Amino acid sequence: MSNVVKRLQERRANVWEQAKALLDKAEGENRDLTAEEETTYQKLNGDLDAIDARVKDMVEAEQRSKDADAAFAALLDRPAGARQQPREEDSELRRFARGELRSIDIRPEGPVNFRDLVKGTATAGGNTVPTTFYGQLVAHLIEVSGVLMANPTVLNTASGESMEVPVTTAHSTAAITSEGGTITESDPAFAKRTLGAYKYGVLIQASSELLTDTGVDLEGYLSMQAGRALGNALGAHLVTGDGSSKPTGVVTSASTGKTGGTGVVGAFTADDLIDLFYSVIAPYRNSPACGWMMRDATMGAARKLKDGQGQYLWQPSLQLGVPDTLLGKPVYTDPNVAAVATSAKSVVFGDFSAYFVRMAGGVRFERSDDFAFNSDLTTFRAIIRADGLTVDQTGALKVFAGAGT
Length: 405
What we know:
Blueprint: H1 2-28, H2 35-77, H3 88-97, E1 103-106, H4 133-143, H5 146-149, E2 153-157, E3 163-170, E4 189-195, E5 198-207, H6 208-212, H7 218-240, H8 250-253, E6 255-259, H9 270-279, H10 282-285, E7 290-294, H11 296-302, E8 314-315, E9 325-326, E10 329-333, E11 345-351, E12 355-372, E13 377-390, E14 397-401
Parallel strand pairs: 2-12, 6-14, 7-10
Antiparallel strand pairs: 1-12, 3-4, 5-13, 7-11, 8-9, 9-10, 11-14, 12-13
Helix pairs in contact: 1-2, 4-7
């Protein structure tokens, strides 16, 4: 596999060099890309995305192979005649799939740190993804949510009662004080917000043939389907939720760091992104959880931009599976971030650890053989409860907004 990876890495670098050559040629001639060049550029962008998708598949396949090797190694090391005792969770899940149980709760063993569940190379986080059903579901949930990929702070609670969370709205300030003078009081300003536990659910129906086919990885099938469905629903609210009977999204609670120029239909320039970068103060910029978030189409526009020294702001990752960078910070994509448009908040930048995601309890699974009896389908229901809120509202997260006209 190493040779394949090396070829993909070389191909990715070559595609990026071709894209740069197109942009540099147009810039050198002081013109925009022609229609033909724009078509070629978009194709090259598509090639980059396709290579990234293939790498992701290879990483997942390699991890599955490692898991299988570990399982065989454990079997081979077992004394002759010894029977492996299934984990209680596995036993419950298998009994549940056979219809012996109608409802199970899948909970993490201890607090789960979502930052470890990064879909990337093994050394960048792939090895930390557990192979339990809960871990697989969470991995798929993160896979489709840019916010969960961007290193938020995740709170796992056993139950779903409301949590009162202090929100910082202003910091203390200091001043020079003369000898014997009174030191002026300067308290930080706080507000109180509530983290709830909004319920997200999905119904999954499987045929009896699927359930009785011994070649089917039922655990993987259920975790993939449920994780992606729940991730899509929760992920949308973690970006743009208005806090009314749903989470408050990162865009909703972020302040505006830079407003674009007029007459460009919300488009940003290199200077706009640099201004947005420095609108976030150094303690947040230097955080390991600091990064960018935008949708895929916006990424295509960002890849064209250069700074005052003619250097591209966007840089491809030298390590497969690791996010590309913009001004040295990782870029995460989420389709729920607005497209570039007049008045649209199309780019988010800052310290995503200031955004709290609350996960109440584990994942509840229930089964019904009667719901779709006439179709010979078994219905599974997956439910999670979650909420989200930016707890540091002093400027940890900021957005670029297109001008109103």
